[in-house]
Amino acid sequence: MRRTALAFVVCLAVCSLVASLAAADTIKDGTILYSAGHYLGGQPLKTGYDIFGYNYQAHMFNGSYANVYLGRDGFPPFEGDVDAYLAANPGAASKWYWYPDVTLQMKWNDQWMSNQDLYDNATFEPGPDGKLDRHPGYDSYIGSGAWETNHQSGFDTMLINGKEKQVHWSYFVKIVAVPSDATLAGGYWYDGDGIEMGSAIWGSFARIQMVYNDPVAAAHGKMYVSPAGPGFGQYGPE
User: How many CB atoms lie within 10 A of CB 211?
Assistant: First the structure.
């Protein structure tokens, strides 16, 4: 269904920002900038929420699904009026992420994306590169202990007693970086003991829990729970 697919592709537009270790640059220093091409390109990241809904200091995003990516592609933030926004930014309508009516909340840990710049993300060596660190101390996400949660919600219409009514839907997923001894088979990751962790996403990650509620789709409650367990604690840094 449309919304379950949405979460699977939200690799965080957070992906446009990364980091390093030596001088320990932080968001509070005002020296970490939005990347070139971003709507806010060249401006410093600041603590608190930005105009798109990102709070990099607190490891959170809260806003329209479209705003996860609009800034990265040079568009201004969507603020609620679809017609007015598309009149001023017609190119946004053709973007795969143009779901302005979907509300999204994301949370992540330091290993997913840090709020400081200690390492060069290209070489994994100590030394700031002007971007927020990803999987600091590791050459890749595998075994890093990175995790992210994604909570989407919105409204659909359905016939109830012969009348069209608005009904609320929501989708929640937990995503973890797989450990170094994990193996991939048939689209699912398995831990070192051969126990199923969850379905594969973005190459190095597994979905360990999904909860979907939608009256239109007759979906109610847990959609998937990892046999290896849905908790983050067991997938910490190695």
Answer: 18
Give, as one character, the DSSP assignment of residue 5.
Answer: H
**Eight-state DSSP code of residue 214:** B
Residue 236 lies in a domain: no
The pTM of this model reads 0.86
In a domain, 218, yes or no: yes
The 10s digit of each residue's pLDDT in 159-208 is: 888 888 889 999 999 999 999 999 999 999 999 999 999 999 999 999 99
Q: Is 85 left (phi over 0), alpha (psi -120 to 50) or beta?
A: alpha
Residue 138 structure tokens: 């590791």
- Answer whether residue 76 is part of any domain: yes
Does residue 194 fall inside a structural domain? Answer: yes
CA distances from 95 to 68, 91, 92, 100, 149 (A): 12, 7, 5, 11, 23
Q: Could you list the beta-strand ranges (E) of 95-187.
A: 103-108, 116-117, 147-160, 163-177, 183-185
Is the pLDDT score of 48 beyond 60? yes
Number of domains in the chain: 1
